[in-house]
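Lab notebook, bench 4. The sequencing result for the construct came back, and we need a structural model before the next group meeting so we can plan mutations. Quick request posted to the team channel:

Model the 3D structure of this chain.
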Amino acid sequence: AEDTQIDIWNASLDPEGSGMLDVKLSLTRDKFNEMTKHLVDNAMDITRRTLAAAEVLPEQITDVLLVGGMTRVPAVRKAVADYFGAARLRDSVPVDLVVAIGAAIKGAELDGRLVNQMAIEDMTTHAFGFEDESGRFQQVLPKGTAYGTVGTVVVSNAQAGQERIPIAILQGESPVAKENTVLARYDHKIAPGDVASAEVELEFMLDDEGLLVAAGRDVTTGETFTILEGDK
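Done. Here's the predicted structure in token form:
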């Protein structure tokens, strides 16, 4: 529709009056598009970055499946058509049914049943890693890593005489550590010695909910510890 009438009776209490307030207004498509333009732009920005990360060009995509209620919006469909080409849009399946089918496939997978050899993997939208001694972000689990994946790295003392190895667990994309989100901090006690005299093996794992769990093992002493999101 090019416009619609919005009527909401008793929408809210009038604090200065004696009754309830009603809402009655007309909303045009142009005004709606103006109000939601930033959302459409954001969705397309995510689309462009996703393809760039996969090193895939828009013209290499043969079919674009529209998923969810947002893709009913004409401005969204136009933005997708402009980017991929209108001929590539596939909307023969109702957009809400697409969501239901995907949920059913995932449910069958979790239930231990194979459905036409199909599988749906949850992937992280951020990279996870740690801050090194030079303030750089060292990724252990890159963006796009599937839940349940384990990554391992070894860190050591950067200076002679250190009594602790500070460990900052980060989430983000920037190579500069301080520009990312700090998920947890942990100071591991070590015996003072030469540079790289102490080593700690860190293991990063994304659980089934996408939460990060980091476990450490002191290579010298065998001591183990766990770092959870929120530990500071």
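The chain has a mean pLDDT of 89.
Will bring this to the meeting.
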